[in-house]
Amino acid sequence: LRMYQRYSDNKGWKFEIIEQQLTELGGIKDVVVHVKGAGVFARLKYESGVHRVQRVPETESGGRVHTSAATVAVLPEAEDVDIQIDAGDLRIDTMRASGAGGQHVNTTDSAVRITHLPTGLVVTSSEKSQHRNREIAMQVLKARLYDLERQKVDDERAADRKAQVGSGDRSERIRTYNFPQGRVTDHRIGLTLYKLDQVMQGDLDEIIDALTSHAQAQQLAEME
């Protein structure tokens, strides 16, 4: 999360955390972020997939490397003209927002949960303003519905998927961050960089530029 926040700062983008769930140890279990600025989706769309992290935890006395993973999904924001939602397909609930450990972060029912009944998609937002929460939750819901439709089209057009970097499947392992070796490897294009510290500080341009060039080369090859 910090890596993408710093990359956004470097690009002059607006980075806003909409919703996050914390673990009991204070780590992040799940987070939804809204990033706004010039060229956001074009730069971040190749970040979708499984990111594997290899490191030695502070509690590991034997020096063994532990592996964990985080799944990233990058969705373009859907405009009103892209997705039309029937109000009858929605169930909107209000509740009190909770922080880590379940304590209430405010005393009013400002948090909003919207359920899209036909698909079962559920989105929440926990800002202090209930009106703002409805607006944010609807934006996220539209983006997810738009993405479902986009995924459906991609599945129906198998030939088009050949032009994507990797398979485009979000269950695909796309990158490994190896802290003991200071190494970052993007498995889709076989790129390895020994500059993990810089990457974690948001220096992602070298990786993203390489992914973009690779995708463009594949698209040109498909046209020949």
Tertiary shape? globular
Write down the CATH class of the largest domain: Alpha Beta
Main β-sheet description: 5 strands, mixed
Distance between the termini: 39 Å
- Amount of beta strand: 25-35%
The largest beta-sheet arranges its strands as 4-3-8-9-10
Mean pLDDT: 83
Number of strands: 10
Q: Estimate nothing, just give the exact number of structural domains.
A: 2
Q: What structural class is derived from the secondary structure elements?
A: alpha+beta
CATH architecture assignment of the largest domain: 2-Layer Sandwich
What is the third-level CATH name, the topology of the largest domain?
Answer: Alpha-Beta Plaits
The helix content is 25-40%
Segments where pLDDT lies below 50 for 5+ residues? 100-107, 158-165
Give descriptors for this structure.
31% helix; five-stranded mixed β-sheet; alpha+beta; globular; Double Stranded RNA Binding Domain; 224 residues; 6 helices; three-stranded antiparallel β-sheet; Alpha-Beta Plaits
Characterise the protein shown here:
There is one protein chain. Helix content is 31%, strand content 28%. The chain folds into 2 domains: 1-80 and 161-223, Alpha-Beta Plaits; 87-154, Double Stranded RNA Binding Domain, CATH 3.30.160. The longest helix has 27 residues, at 130-156. The chain has a 5-stranded mixed sheet, with no helix packed on it. Strands 5-6-7 form a 3-stranded antiparallel sheet, with helices on one face. A two-stranded antiparallel sheet has the order 1-2. The radius of gyration is 19 Å and the shape is globular. The chain is of the alpha+beta class. The chain is built from 6 helices and 10 strands.
